Amino acid sequence: MQLEPADRFNTELVRNVHPPDWTNPHPFGRYNLVVLGAGTAGLVSAAGAAGLGAKVALVERHLLGGDCLNYGCVPSKAIIRSARTAAEVARAAEWGIRVPPGSAADFGLVMERMRRLRAEISRHDAAARFRSLGVDVFLGAARFTGPQSAQVAGQDLRFSRAVIATGARAAPLDLPGADEVGYRTNETIFSLTELPRRLVVVGGGPIGCEMAQTFARLGSQVLLLHRGTRLLPHDDPDAAAIVLRRFESEKIRVEFGVNLLRCERGAAGKQLVADQHGSQVVFECDEVLAGVGRRPNVENLGLEAAGVVHDSHGVRVDDYLRTTNRHILAAGDVCSAYKFTHAADAMARVVIQNALFFGRKRLSDLRIPWCTYTDPEVAHAGLSAADAHERGVELDTFTVPLADVDRARLDGECEGFVRIHVRRGTDRMVGATIVAAHAGEMLGEITLAMTQGIGLSRLAHTIHTYPTQAEAIKRAGDMYQRTRLTPWRLRLLRAWLAWRR
Fold it and tell me: What are phi and psi of 422, to 5 degrees?
């Protein structure tokens, strides 16, 4: 197995997560847990169960670490950080810093840094490390052969319980001519060594938005094509509007209402032919990046032999993450609408309890936040205003613009806000959105409060260090507190203070 480019960092990565000289162990008689797939959900399930004394087998056909390590979170955030530095250099004069003319990102060095860091981080997911934890690691394609058995590389694995954690992959660009012309997904974009002069990004979701801004900041001329009417359709519309304004200021061209028809190769490069508002248009570029969703990996697993029902959305599970086979559970992207690394981690912890200890941990009890790592970041937890309206939940909403927060002004990061939704007439938080440079870091406080039933009024009494952008959360609590000061209470307080004079 080889990754491109074949440099020392990718060689180290493969040596860790799919060693060429690996010898599969002899199967144990009957495993407490067999885990299919070594992405986040599989690794957490295997390590957690083995740490509790279970006999565990972990099977992976490709690279341990899954999408997150190899094609997702790790490489994308590495180059996002480089791109953010490039943007700060471009804006350095705003902070009184002189930068020599002609300073620019070196794309080759940016990608080399990414590969180096990815290789270093891969040690945590290495096959040898999991073997040292007591896990039997099998490299190869696994297939269920019955309700409590599977086979990998000609060896039979018998189990009391199993976990399907095979993840998901990038959905293809399903257009005539796409395969012939060629396009990139998150699984191939990080193998680039030369910066595309012109990049078309298809899709205005998180992956599309993150990569569009990143490549633009690294020097590409970027065009983002989106079928819908706004970016980030699952996030707060005001948050999406801020991201769009930032894109426009960074000369990222965004076209909405684009229905792609076919791909062609023209004299000047690749061409995407589309219908836009009833007119046929042609978009030219040197590279195409498709960010059009994810597809669960359910093929060739022998799910029928195991009695596991699945559909286009993945493996079907109940609230306890049990499949239609009571001996088999599932976790992560293969069964979840929340296709995030942290969601896979949380689901794996549910699986360990429910598979090994007759647990009754529910998926619906989890509060799963998410963050899109544009600049500014967009982080969200719980219900949006639209979600609440659909469910008939009445809200009181408190919004603090970052322009009103001293640290944001000092940082030159005033675009954004903290918005918290509470159930009307109470301080019970049911949802929140933060748009800020480090919104993902700020959201943890609110997610913890929501998970533990801590009301917004309590956050008003939490002392935040000054100056920080997280002080906006406390200010939202102060806004709620002021709503409790009704005219009747205010008259009572004034009467009391007058009597005390």
Answer: -120, 155
The pLDDT tens digits of the residues spanning 159-213 come to 999 999 999 999 999 999 999 999 999 999 999 999 999 999 999 999 999 999 9
CA 45, CA 38: separation in Å to the nearest integer?
Answer: 9
d(C-alpha 440, C-alpha 210), whole Å: 14
Length of the chain, in residues:
501
**Range list of β-strands (E), 52-174:** 56-60, 135-139, 142-146, 149-152, 155-164, 168-170
Helix axes 107-121, 8-17, angle to 10 degrees: 20
Q: Is 26 left (phi over 0), alpha (psi -120 to 50) or beta?
A: beta
Residue stretches of the chain with pLDDT short of 70? none
Question: In this predicted structure, what is the pLDDT of residue 292?
Answer: 94
Do strands 269-276 and 142-146 pair parallel, antiparallel, or not at all (unpaired)?
unpaired
Determine how many CB atoms are found less than 10 A away from the CB of residue 221. Answer: 16
Sole residue written with tokens 């860091």: 117
Count of other CB atoms within 10 angstroms of residue 131? 14
Residue 490: per-residue pLDDT: 78
Residues 359 and 491: their CA atoms lie apart, in Å, by 54
Contact indicator for 413, 376 with CB cutoff of 8 Å:
yes
CA distance 399 to 479: 9
> How far apart are the C-alpha atoms of 390 and 399, rounded to whole Å?
21
Q: What pLDDT score was predicted for residue 256?
A: 98
**pTM: predicted TM-score of the whole model, two decimal places:** 0.95
Q: Smallest Cα–Cα separation from 111: which of 213, 191, 188, 10?
A: 191
d(CA 378, CA 236): 9
pLDDT tens by residue, 98-140: 999 888 999 999 999 999 999 999 999 999 999 999 999 999 9
Question: How many Cα atoms occupy the beta-carbon half-sphere of 266 within 13 Å?
Answer: 14
The first and second tokens of residue 393, run together, are 């939940």
Cα 246 to Cα 76, 108, 374, 399: the distances in Å are 19, 26, 10, 20
* Amino acid symbol at 75: P
The packing angle between helices 73-90 and 107-121, to 10°, is 140
The whole-angstrom separation of Cα 198 and Cα 87 is: 19
Query: Of 71, 62, 86, 47, which is closest to residue 207 (Cα–Cα)?
Result: 71
- Joined together, the tokens standing for residue 74 give 């790790």
* pLDDT at res. 487: 80
Tell me the β-bridge partners of 222.
Answer: 199
CB atoms within 10 A of CB 177: 17
Nearest alpha-carbon partner for 419 in 240, 239, 231, 242: 239
**Terminal alpha carbon distance of the chain:** 83
Question: How many of the other CB atoms lie within 10 Å of CB of 57?
Answer: 27
On whether the CB atoms of residues 146 and 307 are closer than 8 A, the answer is no
- Number of continuous H segments (helices) and E segments (strands) in the chain: 17, 23
pLDDT the model gives residue 348: 98
